[in-house]
Specification:
alpha/beta; 5-stranded parallel β-sheet; 24 helices; 26 strands; 32% helix; globular; binds beta-D-glucopyranose
Amino acid sequence: MAGTILCSCSQSDKVLYRDASAPVEKRVEDLLSRMTLEEKIGQMNQFVGIEHIKANSAVMSEEDLKNNTANAFYPGFSEKDIEHWAEQGLIGSFLHVLTLKEANYLQSLALKSRLQIPVIFGIDAIHGNAYAPDHTVYPTNINLACSFDTLMAKQIARETAEEMRAMNMHWTFNPNVEVARDARWGRVGETYGEDPYLVSRLGVATVEGYQQNLDSDKDVLACIKHFAGGSEPINGTNGAPTDLSERTLREVFFPPFKAGVDAGAFSLMTAHNELNGIPCHENEWLMQEVLRGEWGFRGFVVSDWMDIEHLHDLHGTAENLKEAFYQSIMAGIDMHMHGLYWNELVTELVREGRIPESRIDESVRRILTVKFRLGLFEKPYADESKSMHIRHSQAHRNTALEAARNGIVLLKNDGILPLKAKDLKRILVTGINADDQNILGDWSAPQHPENVVTILEGLRQIAPHVEFDFIDQGWDPCHMDKGQVEKAAQHARLADLNIVVAGEYMMRYRWTERTDGEDTDRSDIALVGLQEELLQKVAASGKPTVLILINGRPLGVEWADEHIPAIVEAWAPGMYGGQAIAEILFGQVNPSAKLAITIPRSVGQIQMIYNHKPSQYFHPYAAGEKSTPLYPFGHGLSYTTYEYSNLVLSSKEIDADETLHVSIDVTNIGEREGTEIVQLYIRDRFSSVTRPVKELKDFARVSLKPGESKTLTFEITPEKLAFYNRKMNRIVEPGEFIVMVGASSSDDKLIKENFYVK
Ligand code: BGC
């Protein structure tokens, strides 16, 4: 198949745009000059693949489509039509293509088109290319964030790029650089947590890992998303309105996007939500003024799923679909994610003179630039014979395991961990996530069982001489069986120790039954179903009980915190999550991760974030309800103890444009080797506008042998001290600042020192 296509290309090899040695800008201009209006608009059209259409048209009715826009097909529009469009050059990009066979096939159709412009395949490769079967599944972003490991983030992104290109995918809809500030929101697990600085650092590392210089057939295009504010929805639900001041946007939500743009991210996805009354998909201020004007973004903007349509059928800011397309393009959208009427109506808008063709050219230029830079014209296919060898390579599997070990947070330990296998004959294992692929997390397809180590399997592997008594609770937290709960309670009395694996259910192939993930928001953050009852009944056995949590959003497990001696927050730790958890429980791995997000006690505490304003808890809650988090941002335990001492500042007084140097000694005073995540926070003591009680400004991972001590140094640059004053100018104000260094955002874990800006 590929051979035929290459032959037909060779006739046109003399034309400039096909000349791989010509500069990209020249190739783009040459190709653009040869394109018809329809072909140009086709480049801005992204469509789902054939198998996606087939699968949905088989099970969905027109009525379903109205109520569930997460799937898509258009009655009467079949895969034959897609093939025809591709051959006409009317589809510039595909998404939701999950096999290499289909990708190569669709590409062969595009290469039959008049100008033989390859399509760019986009995919939600959020934590590895896991949305498609047979790929390495790394821990989800929130788990990765808890490792504070930027090198690991970059490595995972690089390996993901390699696996994607082996499947002929060129563009990942990641990193999600939204700052998560509401635990009800189902997409928290896709994010790097609640701190703008940490999110920025991990986002940048991820963009760099995917794209490198975005100039070879080894790279993939990153997409920073979703712009902007959807991670603080007014009622916690995905796509609900957000009402955020410009100050909050600029201080909390924008920095990771700006950092992503500076790192070279060449695509950006707009957010479902309206922002201060204007839907993001027609928000000129966001896309033109801020993104392109202020930040100099040169890549292209893709809409999110059905969101331009929603300007008309949901938000009601466009009277019809044509108007919605008009508004979104004029506001800055370059590519439309899936939909039937784009090509026809946008062509009409240009022919009617409402959208200038030059505006279309701008978008097409950006899209073609990426296609040339990624080498798609030279290498439009991936080699099926090599693909499986690259995906799942041993090196990638090792990274997935290492990442899981680094991202699992030990929340509580009254001394029962690490477990001693020799003292334990029989362990009860129960709970919905004990033996389930749910550890893979959202945006993962089910994988072959031999490529996943569930928690039960991990325990059996790491402690082969222990008898594990497994009482199955099914996968579904909403439909647990009381009988099985009772059975677990009885078996607990016969065990030396109990392990309850609770949490949420996140696998998207059970879209309507899951409890966490995209479009799966909750009005509560307690354990769903009979899980708490299971935990309480098992613990009532009087035998020590360990709770392991598998989830995306923080869970307010207050009862467990009071009654259960050890709690492990594993999030969705990926394909080797079960092994990593077992290694931590049995002490083969010393846990090191720290929370990248605050865990509130209850849903009523939301918004519960560490970097809040000074007055947030001036008045405590009544009736004895607590105003403190269950576990603060930055918290995480280890099997060793670290001591912090000797916080030294290079000066007590600096100029506003000067950099301050900070050093601290960290000593491992315990008996085990470990890695500590050292955190540096700042508070601006007195300021012309209110400032957060603390803000993370740097961190470091440091490995220490028992008795070993290291001195760490940090820099506090003027940028780290700056904020938006009353006139919204970004400045460093004179006055007192407090530097805090330590093991968590909690005051009792921080050593403090002040300094002055002149
Ligand atoms: C999500 C995006 C995703 C897109 C394509 C949308 O529903 O909001 O994050 O990239 O679907 O799958």
